[in-house]
Structures are given as structure tokens and as C-alpha cells.
Amino acid sequence: MTRIVYANLGYLRGIDGSIRQHVGRVWRHVYTPLAAQTESIAQLTAKVQELSPDLCCLVEIDRGSITNRFFDQLPTIGGDLFPVSGAHGKYGTERTLSPLHISYGKSNAFLAKRPLVATDRYLKDGKKKLVYDIRMEAGSLDLRVLVVHLSLVESERALQIRELATWVAEQQASTIVVGDFNVFKGDAELRPLLASGHLYHANRGMEPTFRFGPWRAALDTCLISEDLREQASITIVDQPYSDHQMLVMDIAQ
Q1: Cα gap 78→87, rounded to integer Å
Q2: Strand 106-112 vs strand 55-62: parallel, antiparallel, or unpaired?
Q3: SS3 letters across 154-176
Q4: Which site from 100, 133, 164, 210 is most exposed, i.e. has the minimal number of CB atoms within 10 Å?
Q5: Per-residue pLDDT at 250 exceeds 80
Q6: pLDDT tens digits, residue range 196-218?
Q7: Angle at CA 47, nearest 5°, toward 44 and 52?
């Protein structure tokens, strides 16, 4: 079995999405103490070590910013389980950000047990542009994994989803597209990706993955190619340090 974990970490601020924590810890969006980050990382690492995935895909990780005491969270995640890792800023390469810029250090990342091929690709539209295009061995499969974090703006998100659909069509490979799609209007926004019939929505109808007080939404999405339908299963795992939940994808051999 090959196991892939995806998680939006909410920058490991220790805010679980409840109104109590959003209000009581709102200042952590401006300044997150090292102790809060360390506690969140310990919780994440314990869960990751328990799940022991082959690939861990992370969005909203802080590599060191003005809002978190310039603490690089990546090296302390996962212990010695993942000898392969990568992390990059998610806002594109058009300009170099000052260390004092609010977006400096805000990144996406991956951790892996074995060598793989990972390409940084950048969408044309929106501010959050980074997509990891990963090729890895999954038993006898050559598996392609695209990891995304799409725009909060509906018009930009629509353009990003259409561009993603062209990227998926580049190869008729066994494919997983996973990430925070921010599809506030639901499955209808995913039609460009689903129209060809190559992908299906693996966590459709499952519990919401995002919480803000009493409001719930299925913002984190896993699309899997049809050839994996009989082999793939997905579960949702709570993250007490984030307002998003974790997706765990298992590919049977």
C-alpha cells in the first residue's frame, strides 16, 4: 500500500476553527509564540509518525516570517521519517519579497520517505500560484500527484481550475490532484477538472474539512484518476492545531 497525507496546517498557530479559539487567539495571526508553534508541531509529528505516509503534502507552512519570530517550521516536522523534503513560497517568482513583507516565508511543502521527482509549477492567475507536480513510485504504478492551494477570489479560482485541467490533460497517468481548492460554491466549481471523465471526486459527500465556528465547508479536495478508483480509499483526520482537517489517501497494490 502507498499512503499519501495532505494537510492545510494553518501555519501551525494552534487555532482549531472554533469561535472560542478564533477570538481568544486572534492575535496569533499577527504574532505566533514559539511555544504555540512547538506544541502544534509536536501534535502534527505524532500523527504523521502514527500514519507513516510515503508522501506528506503540506500547505500553509511557515518557513520563517515576521508573524512567527522567523521560525522555520519544516525541519522539525516528522522527525527522521522523511529524508526527502522540499518547500517553496506559494506566491510566485515574479518579485522577491522583503523579510518584513506579510507574505514572506508563507510556503507549501512536501516530505517523502523515498526519492521522487518534484517540479514547482506556477499558475498564471491569482496570488497563490504554486503547484507541486510530483512523480513517485507507488508499487508498480508511476503516480502523479499535483498539490494545490487555490485563490480565495472566485474569478481567479475559476481561471486556476481551468489551467489545472490543461495540466492534468498533459499526461494520461495515474493521477491525484489534492489541496485546498477553496471551492466555496461546491462541486460546480470543479467541472473543468471533472469534465473529461479522467478524474473523480474521491471525498465528495464526506464530512466537511474546514470549520469556522458553526460554519463548515468541504474546501479540501481530493481528485483521483478513474484507473485508481478500485484501489484508492480516503479518510479524514482531525487537526486540533488547524481549522482544516487532514486527508489520508491509501492506494492498494
Answers
A1: 14
A2: antiparallel
A3: HHHHHHHHHHHHHHHCCCCCEEE
A4: 100
A5: yes
A6: 999 999 999 999 999 999 999 99
A7: 120
Q: Are 70 and 108 in contact (CB under 8 A)?
A: no
- C-alpha to C-alpha distances, 115 to 55, 118, 217, 235, 241, nearest whole angstrom: 10, 9, 35, 25, 29
pTM of the model: 0.95
Burial class, 142, CB count within 10 angstroms (exposed 0-12 / middle 13-18 / buried 19+): exposed
DSSP state, residue 63? S
- C-alpha to C-alpha distance for 190 and 162, rounded to whole angstroms: 9
Three cell numbers written together for 149: 492551494
* 40-44 long-range contacts, CB within 8 A, separation 24+: 40/9, 40/12, 40/13, 40/14, 40/241, 40/242, 41/12, 41/73, 41/76, 41/77, 43/239, 43/240, 43/241, 44/7, 44/9, 44/12, 44/77, 44/239, 44/241
pLDDT for res 172: 85
What is 2-251's CATH superfamily? Endonuclease/exonuclease/phosphatase (3.60.10.10)
What's the chain's average pLDDT? 95
In the prediction, which pLDDT does 97 show? 84
Cell numbers given for 106: 508563507
